[in-house]
Every structure is written in C-alpha cells, then in structure tokens.
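Quick start: what a row looks like.
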Amino acid sequence: MTISLRFNENDAQLIKAYASLHGMSVSEFIRTSVLDRIEDEHDLKAYDTAMEEYRKDPISFSHKEIMQMLAKEDQ
C-alpha cells in the first residue's frame, strides 16, 4: 500500500536530514516513527489497565515468588 503525505518545504528538509543522519530513507523513518507511536500508545494502555487492576487489589509478588509458583504449576 502507498500512502502520500504533504509537508511544507521546511518540514520536508528537516525530515530528510534527520532520516539521512540516522541512515534511513524517509519512508523507513516515517514508517518506523508511526509504528513506534502506535506501540507506545498500546503499551501505555496496557500499563493503565494493569495499574487499575493493582489499585483494586494491591497484591504484588517478588520475582522469586513468581518463579516458585510457576515451578509448582509445571509439576
């Protein structure tokens, strides 16, 4: 799929320079930036959900405790 974007000359030059500085094409830079933004938003929503659940029932376990629980399940 092809998506076209329009930028003013200053923005276009800035984007080209930034992509070049990082050894990327403009397409690669924009694609990576957009997908990173989506992933960040997804991660933030998952964090918010986890914190909401924790506030309702603030029980936590250490890494050692979790490993012990998982070991018992495997038996």
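That is the whole record. The chain is about 75% helix and 0% strand. Residues 26-56 form the longest helix (31 residues).
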